[in-house]
Amino acid sequence: MSAAVAWLASGIALPAAGAPLLLHPAFRPLGVACRAVLAAAAGAVVLSWTMTVLTIARVPWTVPLLVPLTAAQCFALRLALGRRGPPVDGDVPRDRSVPLSAFERLGIVVCGGAVLAAFAAALAAAATSPDLLLFWGPKAEVFAAARRIDDGFLGEPFLRYLHTSYPPLVTNLYAFATLAAGRLPWMAAVATSPLLLGACAMALPGILRRFAGRSEAIAATAAIAACLGFLSHSLEIAGNADMALLLFQILAMALLLGPDVQRRPGQLLAGLLFAGAAAAKVEGLPFVLAAGALFLRTRRRNLPWPSAPVLLFGPAALSLGAWFVFGRRTYLFGWYEGYGRTLDIHWERLPLVLAGIGSAMWRAGAALAWLVPLAAWVVARSRSRGSLSPVGLASVLSAFFVFTYLHGGQDPTLWIQWSAGRIFMVLVPLLVLAAVSGPPASDAAGSAGRKGKSPALPG
Amino acid sequence: MSRARRSPESVVLLLGAGALAAWSFARLPEPREMFRPAITPFDRTDSRTTAGPAFHFLSSAAPAVPAGAAAVAVTEPRDAARESALHGAAVALLPGRRVLPGAQWNAFTPDYEAQAEYVLVLGPPPAVSPGTRLFEGAGGSVWKRRRP
Description:
The complex is a heterodimer of chains A (459) and B (148).
Chain A: H1 3-9, H2 13-22, H3 32-56, H4 63-81, H5 102-123, H6 130-146, H7 151-154, H8 169-181, H9 186-208, H10 214-234, H11 242-257, H12 264-280, H13 284-299, H14 307-329, H15 350-363, H16 368-379, H17 385-405, H18 413-423, H19 427-436
Chain B: H1 8-26, H2 31-34, H3 51-61, E1 70-75, H4 80-93, E2 98-101, E3 103-104, E4 107-108, H5 110-114, E5 118-122, E6 131-137, E7 140-145
Parallel strand pairs in B: 1-2, 1-5
Antiparallel strand pairs in B: 3-4, 5-7, 6-7
Helix pairs in contact in B: 3-4
């Protein structure tokens, strides 16, 4: 078996470790494919957290230690949830036995084609991110060789460009695969980007079917896969952490729009996905804070307090908490590295920043990947407060990114040029989800339409 | 195709998805080019002229630098901007070695460079030999410095 195959095959450990949690009966309505991907996502979050904690405890990483330890924690989480939660209306979509329409079959073909094109671009060495070589890859190699997060390496003064304080999930997972395979094959790391896109396309319909019609779920999944696949080539992100961040963000946001978060298992799952987003990239944290706050504000009357906020934010707090404990213990960092003083805002740069962001989006295929979801949201027939949540989140995140670019003493033109397209990718799924979010499918007899409002949503 | 199952937003999403998926295929390299194995992961990216040669040289030259050794990667002719990027690639492609920078943030770092026992030169061999040549090929050479 080649090193690349072994490196990628080690990913099987993730759904295997997360399976005990996702086998909980509360997740049955999501379907097998969706649960398999969610098990991998949960397994990835718990595995990365375990690797950070073992580093703090000075216990060397080994595959035979990490996998059972992760699976045991997922099993403990399942036991904590109890055997079965209270029933939720519309557990199983009623149109499961109805044959696919031509529109839906076309959607599946488009979605598959988009993922296939993303694979072809990545494997043809046309979409590789320079950041894979600059910091994600080298960190993973060194951590795997040291069998821990190597503070000596991160502390080298001439390696500051590695962004010492960047959260550890992707480097930990790459290090795990490198431990299993013996080395880091670069093209295998590049292939993670289309693999994650494919995983997202597999999981999303299962979650979307909880609150949208089948044709809407398929069209939304195809749109997200096609837009992000197109952008992953245009913006050359294969191998870096952007697609991992997007996967956690998309699945978390989709889950928050459906009925499953009314119950503890759904809240814990959303919390684990939040933890994945927060630990994947720095910009995952503002996403988690804004999405969580908007969600709690919208649904506060239907949620148990304080258990719901604890389950939603607890895993992210634990995940990042372990990372910052590591940073403080090794004197490497106490918090994320900043880009100037918080209130040192250069408002005079606002036109330059907005023009730079617009230009970055325009260069990536005339901004079509953002315009399609925006158009869909505009033409959506009905609005519910559910659809305002992703749009509100998109607005908050956009404002935060602009605010970030207005910071610091240096001209941000180059910084915007290489980062704006990537960080604004999150607007794509948020707008798509806003366009299709509405009442649960069960309200509309499976897939017939979206009239009325969700009983889960006030107002 | 049942009209009752389609909402306007679904139609917009699917049309847009179809257009972007088709565009994604259209932008792929020609089949003959695409099925030619890539030498580096950057062969068909925007950084193919910078990261590509550096990746090819460093991955070919890596066996000439023993594990644990201190090494520096420089360009010929010397260029602080290129060497800043080359250092990052060398850290990635020479795992197990202490890779010191010849330049950082577009400025030369002679104090670090002087600590290196092995010198990897991307480009033609330097006019003044840095020591004993251990490897030549893939667009560069590897030298072991003479002890003073």
